[in-house]
Design brief:
One of its GO terms (molecular function) is adenylate cyclase activity. It is a multi-pass membrane protein. It is found in: Cell membrane. By secondary structure, the chain is an alpha+beta fold. The protein is built from 23 helices and 34 strands. Helix 2 packs antiparallel against helix 7, helix 7 crosses helix 9 and helix 20 runs antiparallel to helix 21. The longest helix is centred in the first third of the chain and has 70 residues. The N and C termini lie far apart (about 110 Å).
Length: about 950
């Protein structure tokens, strides 16, 4: 580097000043302007890339948000209608009421175009939006009739005035119906043309099942794709930009270009066919789709939003593709194409302007440098000649006059001043000698004045030392007292007694040795040494703090190394520190002997301390080891971040967190979970400034274990009770036992029984024929096992049909439907179980090798059901309906099911029954009964 500098200096000596001034500055200006222009262009290009990314993200987010709004509404409507049908709020047989309900929903959901329902018999009801104020109601009766009728709708959604009658329509063959039936849940259909006008739509459909799990029909709501087209056309993107949505199959869903078609008529069929994006009439759409196919293979491979550049037809485009999907079958991709030229227009204009500015700047800088160099060089040449004249004529008289003739004062201000300085220099040299003599005289006077001022300052300093509370000594390297500057009466020794004494003359040897060591250390290091020490005084000890500083003097032959010893009495401070330390000791004893874990942090969330229990739980060797640490030093990163976030919130809001129960991050010694009750309290000073937080953690693991054990016992008890009683009755019984009972006639329970009236219940009695003779021939154990197998099958059937087993009496079995929760199909459920019981008996006979048969009786009517008594509770039924059901069983025939006329009226439409005629029933007289044969 030094060699290079010398070479440059040699070359510079040979160059004229004009070249040195012009060339470097001209090159520097050109380079600065050129680099600035280049950086401006590059920064503009980067900004365009970021702008394109941001624009694509904003457009994609807006499209995704709007599509989510469009796609959520149809499924919300389906869910409302399915629940209304399930709860009986909508009657699927009442087509006009369904149409009116759908019309009302269209008013609340303006983006949904049609809402409809189709059933398994071919019936169909639709409410549709033909225009903003034009609605239609369409009804198909079903039952093999494939016609449906189109009506207008009045202001209340009621069908009025038949408009048209169409034929050849079966909803069960439509895509929306088939997709819901196959999915057995909420789903999207394929995009399909509307039956009446061919408009493309997608349907959100959901199946409806009856209580037996059979498909009743499908509810659906249509979203017309032209709505999405209109939304994309109104998006504010570049003039020649393009947005389109495609399925993973490649078929178009919607596009922002009004010239883009979504369907076309197939040759020979007349049915509209979907158009693939790769076959679109829009060239840019075809090119974009081809690029995506080359890059990803197919759109289904695009896992997340991507941004890339497309070059087509000599132009560059920013192209982004974003997948949109849901769990009901939507798998679309949103493609956004923005031309780079429309974003780069200003950048290119700036580039041209930057180049023009560079050229102009270079020319102007060259001209200005030439003019400036001429202006600067001429005065400097004159000054050079003048300096040579000074050296030639300095020894002659009258050289000032000659110098004035050589130098012309003109040009640049600095050069004018330099010329004047040259003209004045000679006269000043002659005048300087006479001024020196005058100056010497003045200096002597000033020295005398300074000496007097110094003496006054020393007197003032002595007075200041006298008023100071510190003790100030001057000592040499051996600890000898040279001067004592304090007159404080509290001193242990008088001033005149200390001078010329050493530390060993004043203090005991070990103390004196330590003082001398500190003095020599200060002299050796030339740094101030601080020491604290105590001295006895009147039977007590007083503490002092001393600063020992070397006295820096100029180098003289007899200079003695000395220090200044400044001591201050700190007894009061030491006593306060001892009291504080004692309080800290007591506080530490308290903290270390409480069962809770305690820690505290400062306002920056650094640990300041903890008690022994917390340190042990954190696996630290001692409470002092936590000082200066943070949560990052003790916990995983994610957990530490969460804890610090909570602590900052406590400090900012000044609100404590109390009794937060959580599982400790670190398990116990045996890997067990440890539960903590966490309390965190903010700490503030009197001015409200944050000092930190204190945390108190209580180990509640044993309490949690006890609570869990109690909960498990409760669950076992509940399970046992539910095995004996129906769930609603068990809940009532528990609530009754938990109440405080007053005026009780019995011990532990009141007189009130748990009972309820049911207006329509169906009762079944079943008795195994021939079981009594069989019991005399079989061992008791085998007999009980056989009866258990049979009744276990009956229990499973009761559970399958959601019926309530009442009891068993010997070889008789009693079950009821429609209680304790009422239901409208109790007769059908009992009938199904009765038929299945007959099949179960045949299965038992096949593997035991016997010919058992069963006699069943069924009756429907009002009953009273409940729990009575004090102990060994059981759920039982009372009423005439129960007695008649029992008579139906006892008066029946083996292997057959006898039902009353009331039950017959509930079953006649869906079951095969045979009239038995009138029979005599004990307690009732003549009754007309029927045999239940099979399901229709």
């Amino acid at each position: 580097m030094i060699s290079l500098t010398r070479q440059v200096a040699k070359i510079a000596r040979r160059l004229p000043l004009r070249i040195v001034l012009v060339v470097p500055f001209t090159v520097l200006v050109f380079a600065a302007v050129g680099i600035t222009g280049l950086l401006s262009v590059r920064n503009g290009q980067r900004a365009i890339g970021k702008l394109a990314t941001q624009l694509n993200n904003e457009i994609t987010d807006r499209i995704e948000e709007t599509l989510t709004t469009y796609l959520d509404a149809p499924h919300k409507i389906d869910r409302l209608n399915v629940e209304a049908i399930r709860l009986g709020l909508l009657d699927i047989e009442d087509k006009e009421a369904l149409g009116q309900q759908f019309w009302q929903q269209l008013q609340a959901f303006p983006r949904v175009d049609r809402i409809y329902f189709g059933d398994e018999r071919g019936g169909f009801v639709l409410a549709g939006r033909e225009s903003e104020d034009d609605f239609q109601i369409r009804i198909a009766p079903g039952l093999g009739d494939e016609k449906f009728f189109i009506y207008g709708a009045d202001d209340f959604g009621r069908p009025v005035g038949r408009i048209e009658q169409l034929a050849g329509f079966d909803p069960r063959e439509r895509p929306w119906y088939e997709s819901a039936r196959n999915a057995r849940g909420a789903t999207w259909s394929e995009i399909y043309p509307i039956f009446t006008d061919g408009t493309l739509a997608i349907a959100a459909s959901e199946p409806v099942y009856d209580r037996a799990g059979d498909l009743v029909g499908v509810v659906a709501a249509d979203l017309d794709l032209p709505q999405i087209d209109r939304f994309l056309e109104n998006l504010e993107i570049a003039k020649s930009g393009l947005v389109f949505i495609v399925e993973d199959s490649g078929s178009l869903v919607a596009a922002s270009d009004p010239n883009s078609q979504l369907v076309k008529a197939a040759n020979g069929t007349g049915q509209p066919q979907r158009i693939r994006a790769i076959d679109s009439e829009v060239p840019l759409m075809r090119a974009s789709t081809a690029y995506l196919s080359d890059r990803f293979g197919d759109l289904a491979s695009v896992g997340s939003s991507t941004l890339s550049r497309l070059t087509w037809d000599g132009n560059r485009y920013f192209l982004s593709v974003t997948p949109i999907s849901d769990d009901r079958g939507i798998d679309w991709s949103v493609v956004v194409v923005i031309p780079e030229a429309e974003l780069m227009g200003d950048i290119q204009q700036n580039t041209r302007e930057a180049i023009a500015i560079c050229v102009v700047a270079f020319v102007v800088a060259g001209v200005l440098d030439v003019l400036a160099s001429r202006w600067v060089v001429r005065p400097i040449q004159r000054l050079s000649s003048a300096s040579q004249a000074i050296s030639r004529s300095a020894g002659r008289k009258g050289f000032r006059k000659e110098l004035n003739r050589q130098i012309h004062e003109g040009g640049i201000q600095e050069l004018v001043l330099l010329a004047r300085s040259f003209n004045q220099m000679a006269a000043q040299l002659r005048e300087s000698f006479s001024a020196w003599e005058e100056t010497n005289e003045e200096l002597e006077v000033r020295v005398q004045e300074r000496t007097a001022s110094l003496e006054n300052a020393q007197a003032e300093l002595r007075a200041l030392f006298t008023a100071m509370p510190e003790f100030i000594f001057i000592k040499d390297a051996n600890g000898r007292y040279l001067k004592v500057a304090s007159t404080d009466p509290k001193m242990l020794y008088k001033t005149d007694e200390l001078v010329n004494k050493t530390e060993y003359d004043v203090f005991e040897p070990s103390q004196a040795k330590e003082f001398v060591r500190c003095i020599r250390e200060a002299l050796k290091t030339q740094q101030t040494v601080t020491i604290e020490y105590k001295l006895p005084k009147k039977g007590q000890e007083e503490w002092f703090s001393a600063s020992i500083s070397p006295i820096l003097e100029g180098p003289t032959a007899n200079a003695i190394p000395k220090v200044i010893w400044v001591a201050r009495n700190i007894t009061d401070r030491k006593q306060a520190e001892e009291k504080l330390q004692e309080q800290k000791h007591y506080l530490r004893l308290i903290l270390d002997n409480i069962p809770q874990q305690v820690f505290w942090k400062d306002a920056n969330l650094f640990f300041k301390g903890c008690n022994t229990n917390w340190a042990k739980a954190a696996h630290l060797e001692s409470p002092d080891a936590v000082r200066g640490k943070t949560d990052y030093d003790l916990l995983p990163l994610e957990v530490a971040e969460e804890f610090r976030k909570q602590d900052r919130k406590i400090i900012e809001t000044k609100e404590p967190q109390l009794h937060i129960q959580a599982i400790k991050q670190k398990p116990g010694a045996n890997g067990e979970k440890i539960w903590l009750d966490i309390n965190k309290i903010p700490i503030y000073d009197e001015q409200g400034n944050s000092l930190g937080i204190i945390g108190v953690l209580d180990d509640i693991t044993e309490r949690k274990i006890s609570e869990k054990a109690l909960k498990d016992e409760q669950e076992k008890s509940d399970k046992l009770l539910l095995n004996i009683l129906p769930a609603p009755i068990a809940e009532k019984l528990k609530n009754t036992q938990n109440l405080e009972i007053k005026n009780s006639n019995f011990e532990g329970r009141s007189e009130a029984a748990i009972a309820e009236q049911f207006d329509c219940a169906t009762i079944l009695f079943a008795d195994i024929v021939g079981f009594t003779p069989l019991s005399a021939k079989m061992p008791a154990t085998e007999l009980v096992n056989l009866l258990n197998q049979i009744f276990s099958k009956f229990d499973r059937l009761a559970q399958e049909y959601n019926l309530e087993k009442i009891k068993t009496i010997g070889d008789a079995y009693m079950v009821a439907g429609g209680l304790p929760v009422p239901r409208n199909d109790s007769a059908e459920a009992i009938a199904n179980m009765a038929l299945d019981i007959q099949e179960a008996i045949e299965e038992v006979n096949s593997y035991i090798g016997r010919n058992l048969s069963i006699r069943i009786g069924i009756n429907t009517g009002p009953v009273v059901a409940g729990v009575i008594g004090l102990k060994k509770f059981s759920y039982d039924l009372w009423g005439d309906t129960v007695n008649v059901a029992s008579r139906m069983e006892s008066s029946g025939e083996p292997g057959r099911i006898q039902v009353t006329e009331k039950t017959y009226n509930f079953l006649k439409n869906r079951y095969i029954l045979e009239e038995r005629g009138h029979i005599f029933v004990k307690g009732k007289g003549e009754m007309k009964t029927y045999w239940l044969i099979d399901r229709k």
